[in-house]
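Handout, section 4.2: multi-component inputs.
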Amino acid sequence: AAGVIQSPRHLIKEKRETATLKCYPIPRHDTVYWYQQGPGQDPQFLISFYEKMQSDKGSIPDRFSAQQFSDYHSELNMSSLELGDSALYFCASSGLDEGSYNEQFFGPGTRLTVL
Amino acid sequence: QQQVKQSPQSLIVQKGGISIINCAYENTAFDYFPWYQQFPGKGPALLIAIRPDVSEKKEGRFTISFNKSAKQFSLHIMDSQPGDSATYFCAARGNRDDKIIFGKGTRLHILP
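Output:
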C-alpha cells in the first residue's frame, strides 16, 4: 500500500539558512499534519491542513510556515534556522475513508541537521 | 505540563513474556487513544487504537485496556518477541482537535 512520502530524507543546513521540507500524503487523503521530534523526545505537533486550509496549529515557531497545495502535498518552510531546529520532522496524513477514527499515518521523516 | 503521562520510561522483558506499558491523562475531552510503535530513524507506526466507550481492544498479540473513570489506559504485548523491541508511544486526541498528543515514550527491549 502507498505510504506518506517525505523529501528530502536528510538535510544539512547552516545556521540562519532556510529549508523546505515536502510531504506527499497517501492517495485520497486530504489532511496533512506536521510534527517535530527532537532526539529522544516525543513528536510535537506543529501544524495541520485540511483541503488546503490551515486546520490546527501547535507549537510552530513564527520562523516556520507551511501550506498545502491543490494536489494535497504540503511543504514546511523553515527560515533563520537555529541549532535547536535539528530534529526529525514527520508528516502524517489522514482521510475520511480510513474509518471513523480518522487515523493519522506517518511518513518516514526528514532528518534536519543545523550546523 | 505533560498531558499524557507514560510509564515506564524503559522496559526489559524476556522473550515470550508480557510487556505492559501504562498511560494516564487528565483532559476528559480526549476521545481517541492510539498507540504508536517507532523503530530508530523511522516514523511512528499506528499499532492499535481505542475510544473511551470500549474497555478493551485486542489485535493479535496487542491489547489495549482502558479505564475511563481512572483516566488510564495500558498496552499489553503478549508473547513478546525480539522484533517487538522499539519505542512505544501512547497518545490522545480530542474530537475537535487534529493534533495527537504523545506520551514521552517507552523504550522496550525484548531479550532473546
